[in-house]
Specification:
With 180 residues, this protein is an alpha/beta fold. The protein has one domain (2-164): Rossmann fold (3-Layer(aba) Sandwich). The chain is 21% helix and 33% strand. It has helices spanning 12-29, 45-52, 105-116, and strands at 5-10, 35-41, 59-69, 78-81, 93-101, 121-130, 142-147, 152-153, 169-172. The protein has a six-stranded mixed β-sheet with strand order 4-3-2-5-6-7, with helices on both faces. The chain has a three-stranded antiparallel β-sheet with strand order 1-9-8. The radius of gyration is 16 Å and the shape is globular. The two termini are 13 Å apart. The relative contact order is 0.21. The mean pLDDT is 91. The structure holds inosinic acid and magnesium ion (MG). Magnesium ion is lined by residues 43, 158. Inosinic acid is lined by residues 43, 68, 70, 98-106, 151-153, 157.
């Protein structure tokens, strides 16, 4: 798998050091309220597991699964919620976790849907944010790393469902011989 990468952007130790900082910030912020974490599957799974084990607070964990159609056959920006049971968010302090903020369409749609269900607060936490003009502006309260506009994989992030299990984050080689 590593042969398909152009270079490593963030190695395991760098990611873990940053997670220590993010977890400390989140812990400080939610010390006096009950936190509900909502993780967006599948990309945030590894990030979520490593981050939450650094937050020594009582918290609830829920997951959401969405499919995004950005300029495919469906209209751009449509997000379909796959999970039948939508998490209970009423009166809760929600921390929404995702792997990467790119166009913003996915997180903007999720945030809108969550806010319809009357949470007490919603904050957004992403491991990566691309430095681009977003199609849907989304404010991320916690950002692990800002990156250039390149396609990255590993540490939960995929290219066609591959590479999620790489323990680091790397840039995919544009013309690698990776299978489709
Ligand atoms: P957005 O709606 O364009 O912000 O896209 C968010 C989703 O697109 C993320 O949760 C990822 O699943 C996927 N995505 C966007 N950029 C990348 C990337 O560089 N590598 C892997 N997945 C990405
Ligand atoms: Mg993905």
């Amino acid at each position: 798998m590593q042969d398909d990468l152009d270079r490593i952007l963030f190695d395991e130790a760098t990611i873990h050091r940053r997670l220590d900082e993010m977890a400390a910030q989140i812990t400080d912020c939610y010390r006096n309220c009950e936190l509900t974490v909502i993780a967006v599957l599948n990309g945030s799974l590894i990030f979520m597991a490593d981050l939450l084990r650094r937050i020594p607070l009582p918290l609830k964990l829920d997951c959401l699964s969405v499919a995004s159609y950005h300029g495919g056959t469906k209209s751009a920006g449509e997000v379909v919620f796959r999970q039948v049971a939508f998490p209970d968010v009423q009166d809760r302090h929600i921390l929404l976790l995702d792997d990467i903020l790119d166009s913003g369409l996915t997180l903007a749609a999720i945030r809108r849907k969550l806010e319809e269900a009357n949470p007490r607060s919603v904050r957004v936490c992403v491991l990566l944010a691309k430095k681009i003009d977003r199609e849907a502006p989304v404010h991320a309260d916690y950002v692990g790393f800002e990156i250039e506009n390149e396609f990255v994989v590993g540490y939960g992030l995929d290219y066609r469902e591959r590479y999620r299990n790489l323990p680091f984050i790397g840039v995919l080689r544009p013309n690698s011989s990776r299978p489709v």
